[in-house]
Every structure is written in C-alpha cells, then in structure tokens.
Amino acid sequence: MNTSTDWFASWFDTNFYHILYKNRDHKEARLFMANLVAFLNLKKNDTILDLACGKGRHSLFLNSLGFNVTGADLSENSIKYASQFENETLKFVQHDMRIPFKNKYDAIFNLFTSFGYFENDNEDIQVLNNIKNGLKTSKSIAVIDFLNVQKAVANLVKEETIERDQITFNIKRLLKNGFIIKEIEVVTESEKYTYFERIKYLDLPKIIKYLETVGLTLQYTFGDYDLQKFDVNSSNRLILIISK
After folding, report:
1. Where are the transmembrane segments (predicted)?
2. CA distances from 161 to 87, 186, 191 (A)
3. 239 located within any domain
4. pLDDT tens digits along 39-94
5. Which residues are 69's β-sheet partners?
C-alpha cells in the first residue's frame, strides 16, 4: 500500500476529510483551549501561532478571547476558507511547518495530533526547532497536543465503517514500521478513493529526546483536555507544555 510521507498534503485538502471529521467535539476543544490559556496565564493581545490550524475554527475561538492569532496550515483549501474570518488581530497563512516561521510569538499551539507526520525523524526535529526559534523569549510557551500512543495501540479498533452524508468510509487501522496507520476507503455513489493517515509512534521518552536535541525543555505533561495528570495506561492524550 502507498502510504507516502506527504499523505497529509492530499487527504487534508479533500472535502472527504472534513465530512469524516465534522462531528468532532468542538465544545470540548474550546474548553481545552480556555483551560490552556488560563493555565499558561496568557495576557490579552499576546501573539499566538495556531500551527496546523485547519479551517481556523480554533484560531477564531482564541481570537475571541482577546489574543492576536495567526493560523497556519499546509492546506490551500483550508486557508482559503479560513481567510474569510480575518480581522486586524486574526490572520491566516498557508505554511509548511518544516519551514521556519517569519515571526516570533508569545505562544505556539500545535493541537489535536498535528505532529509526527513525517517518515524521517529529522523532519519532526526540524519542526521542533522551528517552534523553538518561533518563540519570543525564554518565558514563551509551546504546546503540543499529541495522542497517548501506548493506549491508542492497546485499544486499536482494527476495522470500522462510518456512513456520513451518503458516503461510506471503510477504515482499517494497524501499527506498522513505527507508525499508526489508518487506511480510509471512501465510497461514493459513483467513485471509490483510498487515503491514509500516518502518525508516528512517539511515546514520551522519544519525544523528550527530540526536545533535548533542539534545546527545548519539557515543563509539564497532561493527559486530557481538563489538564489532568498524564498516565501512560489511562490517558487518551499526551499534552506537552514546552519552553526554550
């Protein structure tokens, strides 16, 4: 099967992706971001980079809290959609996270498993280096919201079918060559397509090694969107609070 490194460049730019995931719990996501900004003690008008912002829904929410937000995403279609919401303190740019940022920020958020996409470890490390260089000062904070891979693999649903908007999504999951792979067969009335998602199996010790490589410091870990303590066996998320 073809699980190209740049699977995200094609999959995220399709309408099918947004249809499959349109029922995500956005209320929970907004609560998470509200919890984050309170914990981090961010101030009104602080600058935030929402890295891998998708269609900008969470950038919009952060902006509504009084922050100066830039949303960045690789998907041309997502940025085109998000740009309609721009204002003086909310901007959107198309950007590959492997490329250094032009500006520096008080906080950089990489949320909802938008990390670990790349085949080569050096590319993940390059992203972290860009995040480090994109932070204004040693007091600036980065947040990476990743999945708890140990629990995800232990509870892996190998096959399921989802019906949505008269489209059938046949989904298979497996762990292979250090990646959690999701094969998504999309069946419409007249066509059939296959896409992939590939998330690197990054546990906490490996991520810490990544951070040490670029000179970032792990300050806190949390295991859910209520910012409860991370537990490798029970937590759904691995949320990292990082500084340089």
Report:
1. none
2. 40, 10, 17
3. yes
4. 999 999 999 999 999 999 899 999 999 999 999 999 998 999 999 999 999 999 99
5. 48, 90
Contacts of residues 171-177 at CB distance under 8 Å and 24 or more positions apart, as own/partner, are 175/201
CA dihedral (79, 61, 128, 17) positive or negative: negative
- Token couple for 78: 């997502």
| Distance, C-alpha 58 to centroid of its chain | 11
pTM of the model: 0.91
Q: Which residue has the tokens 């997502």?
A: 78
Closest CA to 109 of 72, 143, 132, 147: 143
| 216 belongs to a structural domain | yes
Residue 124 phi, psi (nearest 5): -60, -40
Domain residues for 27? 23-147+202-243
Distance CA 181, CA 174 (A): 5
Q: Which residues are 181's β-sheet partners?
A: 174, 198
Q: How many domains does the chain have?
A: 1
